[in-house]
């Protein structure tokens, strides 16, 4: 099966799906093209599917994985990155060129990677809340298609103007933390909006990489985060690894999973080690 988001790749995914069907047919593999409709589970009548190729970005991959988990199936995934950021594809070092990505799916091997879960939702790249983290949700799809990652600039500036801290309690299998923070990031991947934020992390190590930006003055907190992005180790940025954690707060803030609206607090986050199969 090949699932395509018609909006992905500025409309090029429809043509690519047709080309993929022809390519795989030459190797005696039948691919069924299907329009990916959010709100409709594409596997309801395809429970025995063995290979699913997703043409889209992190949001499309996230939706497909959640649909698989809802029905208890685990087919092999192939990814043709055609989204705005393509963070998971970057973490897997997949080709940004669709035709090359298709060929690698056809000829490649199956690798197992981690899949993470927060409450009843699965995610493949990142769970976040705080400043900058809901920019993707607040950016119109049309703007993403026209301007790519540049479309996130205005929502990001708005976040800086309205920086608000949140008091959280974090408990992992090995430590506890409590404090006022501006940002929380729990990674399965390595980048957010293609910005490299984790260090020495892997998508198959069975661990979440967590980054917390502690509250200081707004200017100091922002400069601390910038120093961290540039390779420094500022005191206000905490980093730790775990496989299971609970985050609680008496405040409600919007959370984000792979660029889409996430669940409400409290958050139970865990990493399911090497539970996804990727052909690449």
Structure description:
- The protein is 26% helix and 34% strand.
- The radius of gyration is 19 Å and the shape is elongated.
- The strands form 3 sheets. Strands 5, 6, 7, 8, 9, 12, 13, 14, 15, 16 and 17 form an 11-stranded antiparallel β-sheet that branches. A 4-stranded parallel β-sheet has the order 2-1-3-4, with helices on both faces.
- It has 280 residues and is an alpha+beta fold.
- The longest helix has 14 residues, at 58-71.
- Strand 8 (166-172) and strand 9 (176-187) form a beta hairpin.
- The chain has helices at 13-25, 58-71, 87-91, 98-107, 135-138, 141-147, 153-161, 218-229, and strands at 2-4, 33-35, 51-56, 76-81, 110-118, 121-123, 126-130, 166-172, 176-187, 191-192, 195-196, 208-214, 237-242, 244-248, 255-257, 260-261, 267-279.
- It contains 8 helices and 17 strands.
Short overview:
The protein has 280 residues and is α+β, with helices and mostly antiparallel strands. Helix content is 26%, strand content 34%.
Write the layout of secondary structure elements.
Elements: E1 2-4, H1 13-25, E2 33-35, E3 51-56, H2 58-71, E4 76-81, H3 87-91, H4 98-107, E5 110-118, E6 121-123, E7 126-130, H5 135-138, H6 141-147, H7 153-161, E8 166-172, E9 176-187, E10 191-192, E11 195-196, E12 208-214, H8 218-229, E13 237-242, E14 244-248, E15 255-257, E16 260-261, E17 267-279
Parallel strand pairs: 1-2, 1-3, 3-4
Antiparallel strand pairs: 5-6, 5-17, 7-9, 7-15, 8-9, 8-14, 9-12, 10-11, 12-13, 14-17, 15-16
């Amino acid at each position: 099966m090949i699932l395509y988001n018609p909006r992905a790749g500025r409309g090029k995914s429809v043509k690519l799906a047709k080309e993929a069907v022809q390519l795989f047919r030459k190797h005696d593999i039948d691919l069924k093209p299907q329009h990916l409709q959010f709100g409709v589970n594409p596997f309801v009548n395809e429970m025995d599917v063995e290979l699913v190729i997703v043409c889209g970005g992190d949001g499309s991959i996230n939706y497909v994985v959640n649909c698989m988990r809802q029905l208890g199936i685990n087919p092999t995934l192939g990814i043709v990155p055609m989204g705005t950021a393509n963070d998971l594809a970057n973490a897997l070092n997949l080709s940004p060129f669709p035709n090359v990505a298709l060929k690698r799916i056809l000829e490649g091997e199956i690798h197992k990677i981690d899949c993470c879960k927060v409450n009843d939702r699965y995610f493949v790249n990142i769970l976040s809340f705080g400043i900058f983290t809901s920019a993707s949700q607040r950016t119109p799809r049309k703007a993403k298609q026209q301007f790519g990652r540049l479309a996130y600039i205005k929502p990001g500036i708005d976040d800086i103007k309205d920086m608000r801290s949140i008091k959280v309690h974090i408990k992992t299998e090995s430590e506890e933390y409590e404090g006022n923070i501006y940002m929380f990031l729990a990674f399965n991947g390595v980048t957010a909006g293609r910005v490299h934020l984790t260090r020495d992390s892997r998508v198959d190590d069975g661990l979440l990489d967590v980054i917390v930006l502690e509250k200081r003055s707004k200017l100091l907190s922002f400069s601390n985060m910038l120093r961290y992005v540039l390779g420094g180790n500022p005191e206000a940025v905490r980093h730790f690894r775990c496989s299971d954690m609970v985050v609680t707060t008496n405040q409600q803030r919007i959370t984000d999973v792979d660029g889409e609206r996430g669940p409400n607090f409290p958050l139970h986050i865990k990493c399911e080690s090497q539970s996804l199969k990727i052909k690449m």
